[in-house]
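Any chance you'd type out a single protein's sequence alongside its tokenized fold?
>
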Amino acid sequence: MNLIKKCIAEVIGTAVLCFAACGVAVVAGGSDSWWIATSVAFGLVIVAMAYSIGNISGCHINPAVSIAMFISGKMTLKEFLAYVGSQVVGAFVGSALLGLCLINKGGFASLGGNEIQTALLVQDGLGFVPNAWSYIGAFVVELVLTCVFVLAILGVTDSKFHEGKQAGLVIGGALTLVHLIGLGFTGTSVNPARSLAPAVLQAIAGDATSLSQVWIWILAPLAGGAIAALIYKFLTKAKEEKAADIAQ
């Protein structure tokens, strides 16, 4: 498949993720159903995109997924860089469109940028504020959740196990799960592109909180995706060696 077409698919998929899923998070914010609605929205967008652009680009729409595929030997360095660039562009397109739709609700300032949440903050006279553990805890949460999410992707998309038809559902379910867990800690990123674009646009609108923490939402998911790839390579190599020993 032509790399340009793959990149266009990644732009579209990431734009839809940022527009639709983040849109639900923003619109449902403050309601009793916000937690569930946001988690399900992210999962459903992945399902929809997996079955629409998955056969074109693999539907990574996430640099953490792409780095895992690169480490697994399923992408060249050129493809990895092209995918990540396309995902960042798509995230900005989707976030900008969402911001324009929210122009009467604060515009870019209303975008769903990731921030350390109350569960990881400490209370003082000024309210809830971060301390050293807040940043460490947020990094650990994002690393672990991304690792879990990417492990699910690597397993269900592994051609040796013939689970391709169910892949979109499994991946969407996994993303729903990590959002249910992570929303109370970090707002759940597990995707550097999805977090970078809203953070930059919010900062342009005058709220730099997400941008000041964006290193977490970039480095932790990338590290989590890389670790997931290494774990999966180790586990499957051990399985293949065992099968080879039995065959002998």
Q: What stands out?
A: The beta strands are 122-124, 127-129. The longest strand covers residues 122-124. The mean pLDDT is 91. DSSP finds nine helices and two strands in the chain.
